[in-house]
Amino acid sequence: MLTINISELLLTILSFFVLMFLLNKLLFKPVISFRAQRQKRVEGCHEQERQAEEKLAETRRELDERRALSLKEAENILVQGRTQAQAEADRTTRQAHAEAESTMRRAEEEARSLREAGGKAIEEKRRQLAQSLADRLCR
Amino acid sequence: MELWNSFVDFMTSGWNFFFALVNFAILAFFLVKFGKKIAVNTIEGNRQKISRELDEAKAAEENAKHITETLVDMDAENRSQCRDILEQARESSLRSAERSAQLSCAHAESIDREARQDALSLRQQTMVEMRDENTEALLKDAGELLKGEHYAQRRSAMPEHFIEQLEETLELTDSDRAKLRWGEKLRAKLSSPETLDGELIQRLEALLSRETEGRFSLETELDPSLIGGLRLRLEDTVYDGSLKFMLQRVGEELEEDESPEGDLSEYFQNRFSVASTRPGCFQTGVVESLADGICRINGLSDVMAGEMVRFDNGLQGMVMDIEKNSVSAVLLGNYEEIHEGAQVRRTSKVMEVPVGEELIGRVVDGLGRPVDGRGPLRTTQTRPVESPAPTIIARKHVSVPLHTGIKAIDALVPIGRGQRELIIGDRKTGKTSIAVDTIINQKGKDVVCIYVAIGQKESTVAGIVAKLRELGAMDYCIVVSAKASDPAPMLYIAPYTGAAMGEYLMYKGRHVLIVYDDLSRHAVAYRELSLLLHRPPGREAYPGDVFYLHSRLLERAACLNEENGGGSMTALPIVETQAGDISAYIPTNVISITDGQIFLEEGLFNSGVRPAINAGLSVSRVGGDAQPKAMKQFASRLRMDLAQHRELESFSQFGSDLDKATRDALNRGRKLTELLKQKRFDPRTVAQEVVAIFAANEGYMDDLETEQVSEFERRLTDYAYEKAPELCRDIDEGRKLDQEQIQELRSLIEEFKGDFRA
Questions:
Q1: What angle (nearest 5°) sits at the alpha carbon of residue B714, between those of residues B709 and B716?
Q2: How many CB atoms lie within 10 A of CB B646?
């Protein structure tokens, strides 16, 4: 007759638990721990990469900003240089015009005095010059 | 203990053990049969997954490490770049400031030079005015003195002295000898202020008899206005030893001296002390009729064609026609004071104009007289306005480019030094602008430019001169202006005057660019002269020799070989067409004389294409050999693309459903047309032109908006000069680009385009 052998059942249950205990102690725990560590390491690496990429992007942004600032500063330098050069050129041209005007004023003055002095001198020597020409032509 | 015993019993019982083994074997069999593959796959999958994860993790770790390292480098590189940008900006700013300072210094120097020149001119002008004011009075005083008793004795000795000088100088002219050969008598007339001694008359008759073999008739007359001395007229030749003539000659000589220097009384004294007392010998004629600036003269028997004649009031004329009994001359100036019977004197010189480096920076009229109010010209050199063109032996092939700075011309119709390139088009199509831009671009290239304005409005010429002066181009430029209100002879002579000035410099080894603006008006002026001279009219009423009129002018442009100085004269004649008709008489003539033409189209001009050059009808027959090598490499493609565009454009108007190739060609053509547009007074260097054309040829402009082309071109050419100065220098110096340089140019444009888009 088919019966349940209590003692055998108990023995089997006991051996199962002993086996489970031993497996848990010697196999499952180290394996789970190893897997967890591995997972952690992998995640750590990925996290490290993500952080590095974030930092890279941030650095790129910063560098771009710095470059843009430099370009802006360069443009300012160029604009400032151009403005200064233009101002300097204008000043030189103004100065040249002023000097030219002064030269012309002096020349006009000189021409006036030349006309006065020359006219007077010719008037004084007119007779003498006419005489000299007449003498020359009628040698 | 009991349990243990039962277990031992169970195990030791043979059947139980056997069944256990059978059970195990069955279980093992099923497990191996159905579960092994799944288990192995699962394990293998897990292994691979783990391995991948580990690899990825390792790669991520390495990447992170690499990124960290890169960050440092990037930072350092960025810092270096920023430093470089600032450094370059500072350098560029410094260079720009230096360039600007140089330009402003040059401008200031130019202003100063002009002011000094003006001051000097003012002084000279004052001296000339004072001299002229006093000359008349002095001559009058001298004349009065000479009439006085004080000089009576010396006056009475003058006739004998005159006869003695006449014995040495009297010589029959060719026309006199001809008359004698024909058996005619020569008419002589002796004028004296007082009654002459019979012995003197006999001496004179003996002299004349000896010269004419007795075939003469002598008439005497009293002329108190002569003051002293004698005047003998033998047919048309006058031997004038009178005091009146000598005084007049002194006055003329003084008038010819355009720059009296020093103290005026000393000047007069010096000039009077060297005044000539020799009798003057000249041929004369008498004005028979005068109409519209053309004078018919009786006399002047031995006059030469093209000789200058001088009228009583100092006006000059030029002999145009020599007929059997009269001579026709054109009057070069205001002829209102000339009357019938007025005396005309030969000068024995063909028409000459002042030439020389001293003319540079000046504005002169058709006779080379200054009209810019800057005092007299300080040159003593003259040159006949008409002279033969250089011979074939003296010339060499046109091989050096004359860079105009206009993209369309330099790429499509290049001009070489010594070439004659016609600029032709309707009125207001930008003909003069092209010529003026070309002149402006010659700055610093050792080319002297001559702008001949023929029949232009004074305001137009003044505007051009002001612009040239403003841009510093007058430092190497001469302007010959025959304005619209001048008589036709002045318009006729002006281009020859300009050519003579250019020719002088060319034979001195200089390079000259001469612009004739324009030859249609010149032809019209010549037609006017010819009709007034009663020459038979031909087609469009132009005289028969109108082709020769221009061919002899334009043939004088040449490129001389080294033995002849190596100079050159490039001519840019301008011709105006009516309603775009280039088959009219004058345009076809000039087209056939020149080495090519730049045809400007009104339609293009009005649609905003400026310069409005029609690339199809424009051609340069010799300029291709003189084109810079780099330009030549890329310009042929440009010409083909433009031609293709022209064809497709007219075709595409019939329909909008076009294939991609046609659309691309049209797009390329539009970009090229836009690229060839250029503002006035904005000349480009060869490198700027080549870089822009190369970029367009390679399709770098195809994806741009049409409006962006000009901005792209401007920034690209600046970029090229900044980033590849050596490459640009090579192009500017006319070197051919090798594959490496072309690749460099290509990457430069790509790099720029990235920035341009950003």
A1: 90
A2: 15
Q: What stretches of B463-583 adopt beta strand conformation (E)? A: 477-483, 511-517, 568-576
Look at residue B10 in the predicted model and tell me its pLDDT: 61
Across the range B277-297, mean pLDDT stands at 90
Residues B682 and B438: their CA atoms lie apart, in Å, by 10
Q: Quick one: three-class SS letters along B67-127?
A: HHHHHHHHHHHHHHHHHHHHHHHHHHHHHHHHHHHHHHHHHHHHHHHHHHHHHHHHHHHHH
Tell me, yes or no, whether A57 lies in a domain.
yes
| Strand pairing category for B327-331 and B422-425 | unpaired
Mutate to test the interface with B, among A48, A108, A129, A135 (most CBs of B within 10 A): A129
CA atoms of B40 and B38, how far apart (whole Å): 5
Query: CA–CA separation, B653 vs B650, rounded Å?
Result: 6
Which tokens go with A89? 């050129």
Interface of B with A in 105-124 (CB under 8 A): 105, 107-109, 111-112, 114-116, 118-120, 122-123
Q: Which domain, by its residues, includes A132? A: 53-139
Decide if B16 contacts B10 (C-beta within 8 A). Answer: yes
CA distance B281 to B241: 9
Taking an 8 Å cut-off on Cβ atoms, the answer to whether A127 and B141 are in contact is: yes
- Give domain status of residue A45, yes or no: no
Encode pLDDT of B680-727 as tens digits. Answer: 888 999 999 999 999 999 999 998 998 899 989 988 998 888 888 889
Q: What is the ipTM of this complex?
A: 0.73
Whether chain A has a CB inside 8 Å of the CB on B230: the answer is: no
Select which of B469, B621, B670, B735 is catalytic. B621
Please list every residue in chain B whose beta carbon sits closer than 8 Å to the beta carbon of residue A40: none
Residue B313 pLDDT class (50, 70, 90 cuts)? confident
Angstrom distance (rounded) from CA B56 to CA B701? 45
What is each CA distance from B505 to B390, B468, B499, B569, B572, in whole angstroms?
13, 20, 10, 9, 17
Q: Which residues of chain B have a CB within 8 Å of the CB of A61?
A: none
Tokens coding B329:
């001359």
| Catalytic annotation present for B621 | yes
With b for 16 or more beta-carbon neighbours within 10 A and e for fewer, the A89-125 pattern comes to beebeeebeeebeebbeebeeebeebbeebeeebeeb
Strand partners, B516: B452, B573
Q: Which residue in A49, A55, A81 is closest to B63 by CB distance?
A: A49
Secondary structure of B546-564 in the HEC alphabet?
A: HHHHHHHHHCCCCEECHHH
Q: Do A53 and B67 touch (CB under 8 A)?
A: yes
Quick check: A40 contacting B, CB < 8 Å? no
Q: Is residue A30 part of a domain?
A: no
Question: What is the distance between the alpha carbons of residues B547 and B593, in angstroms, rounded to a whole number?
Answer: 9
Tokens of B460: 């137009």
pTM: 0.78
User: How many interface pairs between A and B have CB atoms less than 8 angstroms apart?
Assistant: 228
Q: Which two tokens stand for residue B731?
A: 């192009």
SS3 (DSSP) at B471: coil
Round to whole Å and give the CA distance between B362 and B373: 9
In a domain, A2, yes or no: no
Q: Which of residues 55-114 of B touch A (CB under 8 A)?
A: 56-58, 60-61, 63-65, 67-68, 70-71, 74-75, 78-79, 81-82, 85-86, 88-90, 92-94, 96-97, 100-101, 103-105, 107-109, 111-112, 114
What's the domain count of chain A? 1
